[in-house]
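Reviewer comment 2.1 asked that we show a complete input and output for one of the modelled complexes. We chose the magnesium ion case, as it is the one discussed in the main text.
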Amino acid sequence: MINIKDLYKSYGKVDVLKGIDLDIKEKEVVVIIGPSGSGKSTLLRCMNYLEEPTKGTVCVDGIVLDGEANINKVREEVGMVFQRFNLFPHMTVLQNIMLAPMKVRHMAADEAKSEAVRLLTRVGLADKADNYPTQLSGGQQQRVAIARALAMKPKVMLFDEPTSALDPEMVGEVLDVMRSLAKEGMTMVIVTHEMGFAREVGDRLLFVDQGKILEQGTPKAVFEHPQQERTKLFLSKVL
Ligand code: ADP
Ligand code: MG
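Response of the prediction step:
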C-alpha cells in the first residue's frame, strides 16, 4: 500500500530523514516510536506529500507522489489526523465532516449528510451533529477529526500523536476508535507514545532515531528484546 525508497528530507542544512526504506502492506498497522525531533512527523508528512522529499520516492497504492495531479489524488486516499484537531470552528460537527466529500468528491449534500451521520454514530457522537467544535471536549473533537478523515473513504490513515494533546481521561475514547478501525482492516500508520496501545494494536513497530529506522519488528519483539542500545535507552524511559 505504501512503498518508500531511499527517502531523504532536509530543511536547509538540517538533515531530518536520512535514508528511509519502508513498505507497508494493505491492512497493516504500523506504529512509529522514537525520540522527539527524530523525524517521525516528517516521515508521516512525506507519505501524503505535505512535505516534499529531498530525495527518494514515495508511492501510495501504486501512485508515485510527484506531479500535482498525483498529489491531489493521493491526498484523497490518505487521511491524516494530527495532534491538534484543526476542526473548522465556524462549522458544526456535521458540516465539518460533509465539507471535503462535497467539495473534493462532489458528493450530493443529502448523501454527504447521511454518510456523516453514519460516521458520527461510529465514533459515538451521533448526538453532537449540530454542535460547534468548541462545545465539545478534546476527546470528542479528536473523534470528529477521525470521522472527518474517514468521510473521504481513505485507503490509508495516518495518525500523528493523536492523543498527545488530550487530557488523560480522554485518551481511551480516541484509542477505542482507532482500535476498531484497525480491527476492520484499515491500513494505518500511527506515531504515538501510547506503548500499551502500540503493543496491542500494532502489527509492526518502528523505532526511528535521528532520521533513520533504527530497529523494527513486532511490538512484542522490540519491547522485550530490543537489539540496539539506543532503542533500549529509549524504551527504558517510556515503558
Ligand atoms: P518528531 O515528529 O520525531 O518530533 P519532526 O519530524 O517534527 O520530529 O522534526 C524533526 C526535525 O526536523 C526537528 O529537528 C525539527 O526541528 C525539524 N523540522 C521539522 N519541520 C521543519 C520545518 N518545517 N522547517 C525546519 N525544520 C523542521
Ligand atoms: Mg512529531
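The pocket of magnesium ion (ligand 2) is lined by residues 40-41, 160 (CB under 6 Å). We note this here for comparison with the apo prediction described in Section 3.2.
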